[in-house]
């Protein structure tokens, strides 16, 4: 593969003047390189021509000592090894630098939101990543929002949206990973704001709901931070005019103008914008709208010519070319079929407009690209381009060459066509694009870049050669090279000076590799040749230098890497050696099913340890349900242990009453009294308006089960009186009904739920139904299933279980008969046969799970999980845990649970409890 600038013949500075002619032999060039004053070597000036000269030398003589000598000099002066991987999620935005030599590519967050996103800088002519900003809070931009990455006019600064609604700036070639400044001025708006980066790279116009007709302010980005309501009286913050022109106000009414796209003109004088079906210009000095015009409100983004002299926009069935400074129409093309994309090019100062006519157009015209000059004279290029589905995306399917004589298009068939333009357009070449590509850019030195959700492909147009092909978010099977006990040590090397996102990368779909900045590489011996296609030495975070022109220190594994001199892995040497030994005896997955239900209970109980107090309500509720489950199994001691783990006092007292009620009903009155040992004053101290019905019914049920009828009556009366129609009425009713049923007062329970005036939340009605089924209360099950309000209006006629929740419960319990009963009431509109089959299968296998088929299904799902990017494994892992729990494979559940987040209840803790419900009942609902 060539690794060239493909620029004109190099022009050497005085520093490189000792170099002989291109035809000199390699030894002469090496000798001359030894004479170079390397202390005066300036990469921005000297590296591109030197790189081009050595590329020519390689074509004649292969890689020589001259190549190796320069590589050693560059590494000694600070060049670092870069790999191209690391995106935790799909690409969320990209932007080409004004000179076309660098591409910025950003991504949003993966499963771990706190880990952030990344922003990569690629050198386009060499197709290599040269710098990366890791751990961007909240990720770059937002899915389906465009123009979230912008370059300054001189290409030395980048502005981007991050952390939902913040805009910051960064030096993409500087040594620091800190932002230069950032502004959070949108008052908590939950999406990225439209913004326009000033050409000088020091400030931006940021849309904000400021109460002004043209919302937004001009905020400094060269220093910061700047926060809403704190610093907006800062003299460096400027607002646009408060009033819109009268004609615009008439169109807008009381609404503020919502900017969908904004561009700051390169001369710094104007903001060029589009939004709410208007295209307009705003004078930056006065802050006032200097002109506006009605444009197409269907999402075709207006386009400004490279010199910002003209603007093109679609309106109704007309295409308009106007003067960008005054808004005066230069050309109007009536009866135009419509445009999905507008793009300006320029040749010898003459502007040319490419109009992409989509397949779905207003005139049933043949899809094509039409090229117009500013007078409206045009010609067609017969190619059907892919239509990007969302106007907000950065994607564009037409890319002009800088010379204005050539262009490329991304076709609907997934190919890239390169054309020579003119009155007789000529297709020069066709290459394949990455899968699902939606963006095409023509960069410096004739290099095209095709962008897909998880891919970049760089193509040299002169030769048609792919000079870089990169897929992101790949997940080769097996352990990562730096993994110890499931944790990738490479991601923890920030303190060692390594990139925060870790040096591990996917060399291909089947191979993990590691590249440290120092040049230490871990890769299989048969894959060394592939490293040159992925890695590069980055010089001053701006230029790429081929790794094949020097020597890398390549080792086969982490154990060997840890033993190298100055290895960043040195402290882990023994751990890697032990891990390697363990991997040689590791078995297949799922593991042998040796774990017990007690092990799962214990894991669920201990999962609260990593949770902060904000999760106490969820923890308390689930521990209380788990204690109920233990009590129903007759395990009084174990139930008490769970109760003692409940962090909130009111849930502890309620749980004690629940457990006492269940134990007493099962004949363990003495045990019940031991649990139900608190005083009534203890209960009174914890009651408030919202929990009286919940707590009083539990206390009443415990008294009733223990034979204290008078106290039970008093507490149940109090519980019924506390059912409030405006506050959790359905939930209160079912909690009271549960306690009444549990202590044998079924008629009273029926009266409570039949008095309901609204449908309870499924978070309560479904567990209540599951409770009735599990405890064998067949008549009550069918009664609740078919319940109608006594005075049902039409909107109430569907009952409590019109959705799938009840059917899922019945299938989990193996009760096909109840599914048929449900269908008699609700099911004529649904295809439920698959759930009947599942219920029948569950009934057959309840005593023999997991079956051989279950084990095969688990193994297949686990293999698919290993092929899923680590940053997107959270949901598949959760589903696999539930799959293992449904078939009763507790060891598989316990093997997977530690891989979920420990500090979020919805991760490890929640799925430990859900697994408990499934293993013990077959239903994915809390166990009443």
Automatic annotation (TrEMBL):
SUPFAM superfamilies: DPP6 N-terminal domain-like, TPR-like. InterPro entries: 6-blade_b-propeller_TolB-like, TPR-like_helical_dom_sf, WD40/YVTN_repeat-like_dom_sf. It comes from the Bacteria. This is WD40 repeat domain-containing protein. It comes from Hamadaea flava.
